[in-house]
Amino acid sequence: MNITIHYAFLPHTDADTALAFYRDTLGFEARNDVGYDGMRWLTVGPPGQPGTSIVLHPPAADPGITDAERQTILELIAKGSYGAITLATDDLDGLFDRLQASDADVVQEPTEQPYGVRDCAFRDPTGNLIRINELR
Question: Within 10 A of 135 (CB to CB), how many other CB atoms are there?
Fold first, then answer.
């Protein structure tokens, strides 16, 4: 038996901006764009890896969430304290340069960490924290 990660979910507050960032800046494929009741769910993923995707979803779309809970979620997203994901690349410096040129919100430049990885961090247009590890 094997197990893989098929989908990871991150919220977005602007579908068009999120799609442009993940597709045009990070180079992911746009795989699905589903609208319902004025909201959009976007599925993106790395080229050549059709079994691994990120679903960018409208935050707090669950009908069971109260208005107060929805407001709390939106406040956490605005602070950059809600969603996070770690990606990996064999060219950390090249990807960092591309992100920096796109005016991405850089949190940490490429750094050798004491726990054995070299990585950088930034926030996507919604505020989700994205760490990128260098593959060695």
Answer: 11
pLDDT at 22: 97
Structure tokens at 30: 């746009």
Give whole-number Cα distances, 136 to 57, 87, 117, in Å. Answer: 32, 13, 9
Q: Token digits for 129? A: 């924290």
The answer to whether 51 and 44 are in contact (CB under 8 A) is no
Residues facing residue 106 across a β-bridge: 122
**Whole-number Cα distances in Å, 52 to 33, 66, 83, 105:** 16, 32, 18, 25
Cα–Cα distance list, 17 to 32, 83, 115 (Å): 15, 16, 34
β-sheet bridge partners, residue 14: none
Spatial distance between the Cα atoms of 9 and 43, rounded to a whole number of angstroms: 9
pLDDT in tens, 55-96: 999 987 888 889 899 899 989 988 888 999 999 999 999 999
Q: What is the predicted pLDDT for the residue at 59?
A: 87
Q: Taking a C-beta distance cutoff of 8 angstroms, is the pair 30, 19 a contact?
A: yes
